[in-house]
Every structure is written in C-alpha cells, then in structure tokens.
Design a protein that fits this description.
The structure is a single chain. This protein is an all-alpha fold. Helix content is about 80%, strand content about 0%. The longest helix has about 40 residues. It is globular, with a radius of gyration of 21 Å. It starts with 7 loop residues before the first helix and ends in a 7-residue tail after the last helix. GO terms for molecular function: antiporter activity; xenobiotic transmembrane transporter activity. One of its GO terms (biological process) is monoatomic ion transport.
C-alpha cells in the first residue's frame, strides 16, 4: 500500500483550498454586517440585528454541519483501509439524512422566531429587523447543509479543490448582491435595506448548492439515488452525528449566552460585539483550513494504522496553524482602526470595539491549537471525547468566567475573557488526550 503523503506541499494542497471554502459562510455574514452597518439610516440597529441573527444561524449551522466531519471521517477511513468500494449507497443516504435534519430544525424555529430573539435581548427596531432578516435567510439553511454534506464527501476523498471553487463563487456573488440589493441600483433595483442582505445570502446559498450538486454528479461516481437497506456505516454516522450534536449544543450555548449578555448591554455594545465576533469567526474558519488538512489526512492514516505518521502530521499542522495565527494577529494590529470603520462609522460603537479588539487577537493562538486538534480528532472518529471536552469547557470554563465577569461589571471584556478560557480549555484537553492515547501506539 502506498504511504500517505504528509509533505509540506501535500498539506498546502489540501489546506489552502479548504481555507477558501471554509471562509465562505463567515464571509456571507460578515459582508451582510459590513454593508448593513453602513446604511445611512438605522445602521446601528441593522448591524445589531445581523449580529443577533447571524450568531443564532451560525449556532444552527454548526450544530448540524458537524455531520460533514462525520461523513468525511467515514469516507477517509474507508479510503485508507482500501474499502472505499464497500461504501456503495452510503453517500446518498448521508446527504438525505443531512437534509432531513435541516428541515426539521428549520420548522422548529420558524414559527417561534420572535420569542427566540426576545430571549436574546432583542427589542424595538432591532427585534423587528432581526425577524425580517431571519425569515428570509432561514430558507437557505437546508441549502447550506446540503452543500456541507457534499463538501464532507469531497474531503473524505482527499479533495478540497472543488469545495473551494463552489465557496469562492458563492462568496463573490454574495458581496455583489449585498451592495446591489441593500443600497439598490438607480433605475433598476429598489433599495431593500436589511432584507436585501438576507436575499443576497439566500441567493448565494442556492447557487452554491446547485453548483455542489453539479460537481458531485460530474466529478465523482456518487449517485444521489436513494436505495435501501441502510448502509452499515449509517449507524456510525448517526452515532458520530449525535455526539457532535451534543457537542455543538454545548458550543452554541456558549456563543448564544455571549450574544445575549452583549445585547443586554445596549445596541451600541451588541453592534461592537458583532464586529468583533465576525472578525473572530472569519479568522477561526481561516485557521480551520489547516485543521481540515489534518482532518482529511488523519482519518486516512488511522485507516492505514500508521500512528508514526499521524504524530508527525499532528505536529506539522499545529505548527503551520500557529504561524497562520501569528500572521493574522500582525494583520489585526496593523489594521486595528480600518477594520472597525469597515463595519460602522458611529463613534461610540467604534470606541467600544477598539476597546475589546485586542481580546480577539489574544484568542487567535488558542484558536489555532484548539481547532487543529479538534479537526484531527474528528478525522480519528473521536466524537465522544470531543463531546465531553466541549461540555467541560462550557460548564467549567466559559459559564463561570462569563457570570463572574458580569458580577464584576467587566462588560464586553469579560465576555471575551470567557471565550478565551473556553477555547484554551479545549486546546489543552485535546493535546493531553492525544499524547496519552496515540503516541504509545507508535511503539506497538
């Protein structure tokens, strides 16, 4: 059997396209935030609404998009073990499983949207804008989950190029549509404000899903014809997805509590938090590109039972990601003021943002380690341990720091301190587990 290539060149071939495809979803939200934040009238309220809805939608997407990692892990492990042909009807069944989950979640939230956003401390015009924005964007949810499932299949097949192409097209289209629909084109398109941003995202998600479907059918031998009985790997997919579901509930509990506490401080604070959060999410997905390379290759190495190369891969990808984080921190320091002005021009909002942005930069090296190890453990199929780590990080790290900081009146600084502790907890726990479980296997 040919040994898996974990050279610098091979990791870049997987990581760079994964970075571009990974930042597509945060670009949709960040572009919406930047464009609506510069609406002449009600810019702050629009930015706050996009922040609240964006955080809630990200929570839903992250909860169910974890099936992408499970699909990728199963396909890559079978590829490494030389059993790819045995998967047969698994891809189609996995995709329909993803779509069914997304539709259930869509309708479980659609009719309670006002109550949900009130719970997140949205009120007045911010609440009204949040409802308008969500009621359009939510229909892109099944489209995104379908696209992510296809990305999982491509990743399992060691291919991040086609997901990159799909994501790049979607991101570029979304940026163009945002400006056209939010501000309008004189004589052609009436300005739609925040609703225009929602339509821009929805159309972009539909186009990405369509291209993903075409590429899946044209570039692979995978059929979307649903056949029974269920493939044996579906049971493992459901088990992995359930553990990742519980993990993501813990993850998004932290993110939703953060947005709720920020919203409770006032509209300028939630607007400033939205700017910081969108930059953080963008960098997180940027960093996750190298994590994706680790995810793809670790699953294949596990299938080959090549634990020596697995350890070398883990060291390499962590080192590369720390380098990426260092570059992002430097860019953040150099563009400290322009980044804020990109999203909003209100002096109070910018003052609050500039007072917390350094916390985002402090978080990036911890992100690099946590997200890299997280992706590698997904490739290894360690979904149960990932679940336990997230539960521990949220219950014993994030929540105590968040409410202690609230008691001490630390404001947004306290919220970001809780997020840093939360990420650092995950990084340390995963590194300890890897050393204890997988390094000893090298000698066997």
């Amino acid at each position: 059997m040919i040994q898996t290539d974990i050279s610098f060149k091979r990791i870049q071939q997987l990581a760079i396209p994964a970075i571009i495809s990974g930042i597509a979803e945060p670009i949709l939200s960040a572009t919406d935030a930047a464009v609506v934040g510069n609406i002449h009238e009600y810019g702050i309220e629009s930015l706050a609404a996009v922040g609240i809805v964006g955080s809630f939608l990200s929570a839903l997407i992250w909860i169910l998009a974890q099936t992408r990692s499970a699909i990728s892990a199963i396909v890559s492990q079978n590829l490494g073990a030389g059993k790819l042909k045995d998967l047969q009807n698994f891809p189609a069944q996995a995709i329909y499983f993803n779509i069914a989950l997304s539709i259930i979640v869509l309708f479980s939230t659609y009719f309670f949207v006002e109550e949900i956003f009130k719970l997140l401390n949205a009120e007045g015009l911010v609440l009204s804008f949040s409802i308008d924005y969500y009621n359009i964007r939510v229909w892109g949810f099944p489209l995104t989950l379908f696209t992510f499932a296809v990305f999982g299949l491509f990743r399992g097949l060691q291919n991040t190029f086609w997901p990159m192409v799909i994501a790049a097209i979607g991101a570029i289209l979304n940026i163009a549509l945002d400006f056209a629909l939010v501000f309008g084109i004189e004589g052609y398109i009436v300005p739609l404000g925040i609703k225009g941003a929602a339509w821009a995202s929805l159309i972009s998600q539909a186009v990405m899903a369509l291209i993903a479907l075409i590429f899946l059918l044209k570039k692979t031998e995978i059929s979307l014809k649903l056949k029974f009985p269920l493939h044996p790997e579906i049971k493992r997919l459901v088990n992995m997805s359930f553990n990742l579901f519980l993990r993501s509930v813990a993850l998004n509990t932290a993110l939703i509590l953060a947005i709720r506490e920020a919203a409770g401080l006032g509209k300028e604070y939630i607007a400033a938090y939205t700017i910081a959060f969108n930059i953080w999410i963008f960098t997180a997905f940027f960093i996750d590109g190298y994590g994706a390379a680790g995810n793809i290759l670790s699953g294949k190495l596990l299938g080959e039972r090549n634990y020596g190369l697995l350890w070398k891969l883990t060291k390499k990808v962590n080192l590369y990601n720390l380098g990426v984080a260092a570059v992002l921190v430097l860019i953040g320091l150099l563009l400290y003021e322009p980044l804020g002005l990109l999203f909003n021009k209100d002096e109070k909002v910018l003052s609050i943002f500039y007072g917390i942005f350094f916390m985002v930069l402090i978080c990036l090296p911890f992100n690099a380690l946590a997200f890299t190890m997280d992706s590698i453990f997904k490739g290894l199929g360690e979904m149960g341990y990932l679940r336990n780590v997230l539960l521990g990080a949220t219950i014993f790290g994030f929540i105590p720091v968040l409410y202690f900081s609230k008691y001490m009146n630390w404001g947004l600084i306290g919220i970001w301190a809780a997020l840093i502790v939360w990420v650092a907890y995950r990084a340390v726990a995963l590194m300890i587990k890897f050393r204890r479980k997988y390094i000893p296997l090298i000698e066997n």
